[in-house]
Specification:
By secondary structure, the protein is α/β, with parallel strands linked by helices. It is built from seven helices and ten strands. β7 (161-165), α6 (173-188) and β8 (192-197) form a beta-alpha-beta unit.
Length: 222
């Protein structure tokens, strides 16, 4: 199994304050992993270190073969192309259609062939059952539909790892269940999904490893 994340004795700071210490993680491909803990327990801070938005203060940290202690700013785009990131607040471009949102990402990551790009966009939209909404603007969609578009965006460059920060946090129970069905199917297809959530019921319904954040440390729980 390929090792995607390997953290040993890592320490993470925010504004000169220690957020997490003694972080030891080992993540392989095809896993479903839940980050559990209260607001402010460090879940989002840890996620930010995975894509280089927050530096490692101490310890050894590797993500997708990149040494996060030594990675240079110009190398971050290469790391991020191998990741899919799903935000709670969507971060879609409101003045563009669903299709244009996804084309924008492809252009930004080096795609050139317009025909191939449009074909690929429709392919990933079909994966999340949103191919009939490609012409709509984000504000014309429900919260669940917008989150499906965000998942499609995360899948565009065939990521090895998807980071999902509270992906069901703004959704009602039924819509949240649909999004969980989709994320779980993605993990079963071989893409690791690492997800932070306040919902303790998801890990009971969709099996996976669970990491609990408490008192500035992380421990794996049953």
């Amino acid at each position: 199994m390929a090792v995607l994340i390997d953290y040993k004795n890592v320490e993470i700071h925010q504004a000169d304050q220690i957020v997490l210490s003694n972080v030891n993680l080992h993540v392989e491909n095809g896993e479903m992993i839940y980050l559990l803990g209260k607001v402010g327990s460090g879940k989002s801070s840890l996620m930010k270190t995975f894509y280089g938005a927050l530096p490692i203060a101490a310890g050894s940290a590797h993500v997708l073969d990149f040494d996060m202690n030594r990675i240079r700013r110009r190398k971050l785009p290469y790391l991020r192309r191998r990741l899919g990131i799903i935000f709670q607040d969507y971060k879609l471009l409101t003045d563009r259609s669903v299709e244009e949102n996804l084309l924008f990402v492809l252009r930004a990551t080096g795609w050139k062939d317009k025909k191939l790009m449009r074909s690929h966009v429709m392919e990933v939209l079909k994966q999340v059952n949103m191919e009939t909404k490609a012409y709509k603007k984000p504000y014309e969609l429900s919260g669940g539909e917008q989150q499906r578009v965000v998942i499609a965006r995360a899948l565009l460059n065939s990521p090895e790892l998807i980071l999902a920060d509270e992906p069901t946090g703004n959704l009602d129970a039924e819509t949240g269940q649909e999004i969980m069905d989709l994320l779980y199917a993605i993990s079963k297809a071989g893409i690791t999904v690492l997800m932070s959530t306040h919902n303790r019921f998801w890990p009971e319904q969709y099996t996976g490893r669970k990491w609990l954040f408490t008192n500035g440390e992380i421990k794996e729980v049953d």
